[in-house]
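Reopening: F-box domain-containing protein still failing for me.
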Amino acid sequence: MRYYLRGDLEADRARVAEITTCVGEIQARVSKMQAEIQVHVAKMQAEIQVHVAKTQAQICDLKRSITELRTEQAVAQQRIDSHKHYPVLTLPNEITSEIFIHSLPTYPAYPPLVGALSPTSLTQICHKWREVALATPALWRAIEFRRDSGRSEEYSFQIEKWLNRSHSCSLSIHIVGTAYDLYNALSTLVPHQARLEHLYLDINAQYSLLRPFPIPMPLLRRVDLSLSNCKSFELRAIDSPQLRSVRLFNNSVALAVPTLPWAQLTSLMLWEMVPNVMVPILHHVPNLIRCVLKFQWQQFRFSGPNITLPCLETLVLVGGDAVAKHITPNLSVPALLRLEFEQGTLGVNHIALLKALVLTTIQLREIEITGCTTRRNTVWPSENEYRTALPSVSRFSFQYRTKLYSEY
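Support: Ran it again with your exact input. Result attached.
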């Protein structure tokens, strides 16, 4: 029995040794795994710390952006708040209306139908300005009818709106195009024709314009006619009793003397008119105070009775290259105060003509000479020569450029 007990004890000891060895191996593995886990945890902690640092930096950037945006928001809100109380919006409507009127070209000049300089732009700023603009008839009283201003239907509709918005204001109307365009414009204008005060026609007629305006124009004061290829034009005194100023531009040799109320005019411009039309007109304007004559460059000899303009105070002679020297000796202007002529209009040696003209008036005080240039082989009188020859004239002025049509 002792034998068997010894054998069991040795087996148990061997088993214990084996178990001890396994435990040692397991402990070694556990230690190794613990070491690996610690390394991995340390690595993860390092990565997390880096991520936290990056996130913190992003948070700082976002906070800075939010701060900047809030600053911009505050500035924008401040601007909005300031506009809520902007002084111009507190002005009385009457003052705003006057400001609007002064922002446009001075009447009778016309603004464009559309664009920044058009009164329609004032209706697009805010509700208040729109109400003020639509309630200001003077903004819509000067209108241009132009053939190339856009599609005809939209254009006619826009014109009609302007005419209606002008209410009872007198009108300044500019019509540019052909005779066909003129009559199309008049079809829109007829209900408002009695309010016409200033009329500008730039028409390529191709034929005669006999009484193009079917009803009287009692307010009409000024007519500016630029007629190309027009044979005749008629505007009767009974239709325009207040007409005082006419500007006529026509270089057509086929034009007959237009039928206009010449005797009631006080201001007249004849621009590039042929002499056989210009001279008869000058015989029928005894009440002129101001007269501008632009001569064509052609040969001309004056014939017929002298021209007498007893009320004329200002006379302007342009172009013609010595054509005017045939009219001036036959011109009597006893009330003349101011004479203006373009250099060369009276010929080269025109001092004698000026002396003769001065003898017909005792009031001439000013002479202005424009286009003062030097021509080859041409010697013009000096200022001293003018003053010596015409001592009664107190003022001489010299302009080195030639004036444009629009400057007269």
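The CA atoms of residues 90 and 96 lie 9 Å apart. If you still see a failure, please send the error message rather than a screenshot.
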